[in-house]
Design brief:
homodimer; about 400 residues; alpha/beta; Aspartate Aminotransferase, domain 2; Aspartate Aminotransferase, domain 1; 2 domains; seven-stranded mixed sheet; three-stranded antiparallel sheet; globular
Chain lengths: ~400, ~400
């Protein structure tokens, strides 16, 4: 009998996760993950599922009844939206301004749909006028798909405008909110978005592996009225998943990932306790301090200021500085993980994430200080301490403004 | 802004899980689940992934390089096997002797394959002669799919015989080992099985949500030589998953469910520490004691003895006894979860699981004692204490046999 080599229990190093996700988990979430298993049809479990749906509706600001966590990572959430809504022959406009728009195109093709691509410069938000023009050129478009918050660049598109235009042209919308949910406003009911997915490990700061999704009535109607027969995926078929996560009696579909769901319940509870607006404001405050520090060091952002996600800061790597050496040194010497560039931006940018529980002033100061040290040692010329000073100054200004607002 | 009603942290009740899964987790696994997140490309994480693959090869008794945990429950493992191997037009023999064979047929159809169904009585193992005959009648069969251990009945089929027959007829095999892995011998290399999947929450006693899969070289060749273009699922496309879990450099595919993988690593380590043969023997010993007790109470098994899975014991519900009342009382009064019947067996059978960490003498005695009490109160006539006595006797005989073997 084959015996594996000596392997012992795995104990991960304690990192500070300041990349594009996963983010650090609140200890309350970690504790929740360690609770004992119970059955997926246990009345206690069913109660928790109902609470999860309600907490998720709050996070998404929606009253969509079909709002629940899919038992897979964000890429399963994406695929579930496409396989259910896109029928063979459907025309789908996909807005691409980064990696995840590209993945959407893959999904359309594998569903037998016809993608029409709206190309946008990476790092820029999607131009609503371009969508308007493309919909006029393709009046038979069934679906418009776009990424609200591009994880590969940190650009945020105007979801309200894009959804409005799509709806005026009679198209349903698929909206990727993987990196936005919990970090910047995601307002499904206001947007009237039709199919939305996110991930558990970004601004919700839960363990990876779950994808919160939400579907409008219009989306469900399209799934139920499919002309081309069954959804190609058994696991992702909403008609079947509904029997488990829907309003009525629970029917066995698959064994739900119980412990991860415990964690998500706690993570969403933390979000509700803090309050969505407070969470968005916190992400913005820490972004402002980080930005002050990065710019004081002479680093420049990839994304124009108006379209920047506070939770994902992409900056160009300075000339002559080796990407991998910096990231390795931050990881090995300081236990800090930052993100590399993806696709055409590989080796050209860094992505600093301040997501969910990772969005804390201590992490901003730590990152600026460690990055200053590493870049300084590599010969990058910048004034020592200037980055931290700029961040300190930004925080001081915020505190003064808050005190003034309180007095007023 | 919509505010959800008062929701507090979720604390699951402490159950004893003696149904068809999930099973109870060893505290070491729960502790592993609660560790901090790290990045999915972190060198420490990559090392853990390599160890996981090695531990999984031991559990599956295979040298297949492509042996890894898919980031989804067992039903994703099933679908991944079908979408990769079954091309539109392929002929697939599906052996059905329970619920999960039926799900396989669904998968074949959604992949555009042509299913040929080998029907077998629920509760019986698949008759190898029937497969032989069907393959002779359908010499153009590309794939044979069967469930090694039917979770809906507790019947075990002869995987070695079925794989041998399929191979002689030039067909690849897809084998469902969801309920067998870790509980009864699963010998992939000996069987020469081609695509196999399992679940994390049965005899491995880890949290649900992961599907250990393994693919032979022949299976990978078929995926790579697909004539009909891309795999219909982006998420499950082995060509893409390989870039993340394969032998070479790690390429980002999706964010791996880190904490669940920590748990699986620990669960597989526990299995290796115990030793596979010892784990199989333990499952058998506890089955024998449970069987002695159940039969002493006058309950009869659904599955003929030779094909019985020791980890999943299905018995007929006695006449006049209400299924739901018994299960509710066991859950509410004793915190014991047992399994209901599925499909045509709903309301007719109970399924008692002794899987992984749940397979312990204490659980056998507890279940027999609680079941005796509940059935007694409901007017089921049986001698008080006879079930426990029979189990005690079975354990005593095992101890005597072990002592005798030691002396010899």
């Amino acid at each position: 009998m084959t015996q594996p080599k000596r392997i012992t229990s795995f104990h991960p190093p304690r990192r500070t996760l300041l990349g594009p996700g996963p983010s650090d988990m609140n200890p309350r979430v970690m504790t929740a993950l360690a609770q004992p298993a119970i059955g997926y049809l246990d009345p206690a479990f069913v109660t928790m599922m109902e609470e999860l749906k309600e907490l998720m509706r709050y996070a998404y600001q929606t009253s969509n009844p079909l709002t629940f966590p899919l038992s897979g990572p964000g890429s399963v959430g994406m695929e579930a939206c496409f396989v259910n809504l896109v029928e063979p022959g459907d025309k789908v406009i996909v807005c691409r301004n980064g990696v995840f728009g590209g993945r959407m195109i893959e999904n359309v093709e594998r569903c037998g749909g016809t993608p029409v691509i709206l190309e946008e410069t990476w790092g820029e938000p999607i131009d609503p006028q371009k969508l308007e023009d493309l919909l006029k050129a393709h009046p038979d478009t069934n679906i418009v798909a776009f990424v609200h918050a591009e994880t590969s660049t940190g650009a945020q598109s105007d979801a309200q405008a894009l959804c409005d235009i799509a709806r005026r042209h009679g198209a349903l919308t698929i909206v990727d909110c993987v990196t936005s949910l919990g970090g910047t406003p995601v307002l499904l009911d206001a947007w009237q978005a039709d199919a939305t997915y996110s991930g558990s490990q970004k601004c919700l700061s839960c363990t990876p592996g779950l994808s919160p999704v939400s579907y409008s009535e219009r989306a469900i109607e399209k799934v139920k009225a499919r002309k081309q027969g069954k959804v190609q995926s058994w696991f992702m078929d909403l008609n079947l998943v509904l029997a488990y996560w829907g309003e009525t009696a629970r029917t066995y579909h698959h064994t739900a990932p119980g412990n991860s769901l415990y964690g998500l319940h706690e993570a969403l509870l933390l979000l509700r306790e803090e309050g969505l607006e407070n969470a968005w404001a916190r992400h913005r405050r820490n972004y402002e301090a980080l930005k002050a520090g990065l710019e004081a060091m002479g680093l420049t952002y990839v994304v124009p200021e108006a379209a920047r996600l506070p939770q994902l800061n992409s900056v160009y790597i300075p000339n002559g500085i080796d990407d991998l050496t910096v990231r390795k040194t931050l990881l090995n010497d300081y236990n800090i993980e930052i993100g590399a560039g993806l696709g055409p931006l590989a080796g050209k940018i860094w992505r600093f994430g301040l997501m969910g529980y990772s969005s804390q002033p201590t992490n901003v100061l730590l990152l600026l200080s460690a990055l200053s040290a590493v870049l300084g040692e590599m010969g990058y010329r910048h004034d020592g301490g200037v980055a931290e000073s700029a961040a300190h100054h930004a925080y001081a200004e915020q505190h003064a403004a808050a005190a003034k607002a309180k007095r007023a």
